């Protein structure tokens, strides 16, 4: 009772040790705790690795904006408008951030300290998703010409596959269907977010007794959020699923035609000409995949930037013991849905790689038969025309959709969620112990 107890607030000190912009091993965030919140050495190491992975991801996420290919004069004007729209987008995001800050200040006055902490965490992550979703929308509009070019290339390729005219019609219909799906997703997200944000505003009005001025500000903020949240990140994944199925169909068709050519009774010269034509088609598929990777990869990257904060929100509120079971169950399903959305591009790329591997395996089996040397030579050229690494989503070299990427993102998200939960528990455990000492 007689001793004085000095309270030291938890403090995280971050050191940014980026020495090379492209060296993940030497860049990242190093976290140290001044009060021993992370008592376990294992926890400290896990947090250190997680912060490094998280910082590397966001560093590449920002650098992808700065690496724009303007080697062709025709793309310089597009790059100029890209930057103009980029900064206009962020000005709109700053306006939304300001309105949200005003609302948060009004709301925090009527909440308990624990509620204030949770509300601030939720609001900060929501602000980041608002800004990133708007950037995604801008990015997809800038790339609309490239989408048209990619679809035109696919149609020209399908015209060469004369044996499957019904496939060409099916793929063109699928492309139009995807265009309609885009608008449906945008409209659906807009409606859902308007209902959700306006409903939250009405809840605040009746439970927190917000003024009419603050209620109007809440509606304006909700409207801006509804414009930004129509998540073209989801649209990018829909496009990726479509093109993944499209490329698998192309590869399967090329494998089918190759088997028919080799099993036919045509002359050797006719078989060589047919194999060379298939090699041209396969190379055309590879070129389309490279174009798609440049356009779709950045969209998937920003889609992950949009999804990761929401995943952290879900994980954080699931781990809160003070939450009701229904709320925790909702956020558990919420987090699971975003985990699936992160895993979708990885699965699609893996399926494409497996299709290419099956094609190359079939070519090798055909080559070991008693085929003439000339036919073996052209089969070897067909085998070297494409690699499994050619069908990837890498966002201009900064990003690669594979299992390692999925593990890194999940590890960083889990680490960030654990840090939030531990900071929350330690903060309010110290407050509780202080109150008990005062009572004594």
UniProtKB/TrEMBL annotation:
InterPro entries: 7TM_chemorcpt
Keyword Cell membrane: yes
Pfam family of the protein (one): 7tm_7
Transmembrane segments: 82-104, 116-137, 177-199, 219-240, 295-318, 330-352
Keywords: Cell membrane, Membrane, Transmembrane, Transmembrane helix
Membrane protein topology class: Multi-pass membrane protein
GO biological process: sensory perception of taste
Protein name: Gustatory receptor
Originating species: Varroa destructor
């Amino acid at each position: 009772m007689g001793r004085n107890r000095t309270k030291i607030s938890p403090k995280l000190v971050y050191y940014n040790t980026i020495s090379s912009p492209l060296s993940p091993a030497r860049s990242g965030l190093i976290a140290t705790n001044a009060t021993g919140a992370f008592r376990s050495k294992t926890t400290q190491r896990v947090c250190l690795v997680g912060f490094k992975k998280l910082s590397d991801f966001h560093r590449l996420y920002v650098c992808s904006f700065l690496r724009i290919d303007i080697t062709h004069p025709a793309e310089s004007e597009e790059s100029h408008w890209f930057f103009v729209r980029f900064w206009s987008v962020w000005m709109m995001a700053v306006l939304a951030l300001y309105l949200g800050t005003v609302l948060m200040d009004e709301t925090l006055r009527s909440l308990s300290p624990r509620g204030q902490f949770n509300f601030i965490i939720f609001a900060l992550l929501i602000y980041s998703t608002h800004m990133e979703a708007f950037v995604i929308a801008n990015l997809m509009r800038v790339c609309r010409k490239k989408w048209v070019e990619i679809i035109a290339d696919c149609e020209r390729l399908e015209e060469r596959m004369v044996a499957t005219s019904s496939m060409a019609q099916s793929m063109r219909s699928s492309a139009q269907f995807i265009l309609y799906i885009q608008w449906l997703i945008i409209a659906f997200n807009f409606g859902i977010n308007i209902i959700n944000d306006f409903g939250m505003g009405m809840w605040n009005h009746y439970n927190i007794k917000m003024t009419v001025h603050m209620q109007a500000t809440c509606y304006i903020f909700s409207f801006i959020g509804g414009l930004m949240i129509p998540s073209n990140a989801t649209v990018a994944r829909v496009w990726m699923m479509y093109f993944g199925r499209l490329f698998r169909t192309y590869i399967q068709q090329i494998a089918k035609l190759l088997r028919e050519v080799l099993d036919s009774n045509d002359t050797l010269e006719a078989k060589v000409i047919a194999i060379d034509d298939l090699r041209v088609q396969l190379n055309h598929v590879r070129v389309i995949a490279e174009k798609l990777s440049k356009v779709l990869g950045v969209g998937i990257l920003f889609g992950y930037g949009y999804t990761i904060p929401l995943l952290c929100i879900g994980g954080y509120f699931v781990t809160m013991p003070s939450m009701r079971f229904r709320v925790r169950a909702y956020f558990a399903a919420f987090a699971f849905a975003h985990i699936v959305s992160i895993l979708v591009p990885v699965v699609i790329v893996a399926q494409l790689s497996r299709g290419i591997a099956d094609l190359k395996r079939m070519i090798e089996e055909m080559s070991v038969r008693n085929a003439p040397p000339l036919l073996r030579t052209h089969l070897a050229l067909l085998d070297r025309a494409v690699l499994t690494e050619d069908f990837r989503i890498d966002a201009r070299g900064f990003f690669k959709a594979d299992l390692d990427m999925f593990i890194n993102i999940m590890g960083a998200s889990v680490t960030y969620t654990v840090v939030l939960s531990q900071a929350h528990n330690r903060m309010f455990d110290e407050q509780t112990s202080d109150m008990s000492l005062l009572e004594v």
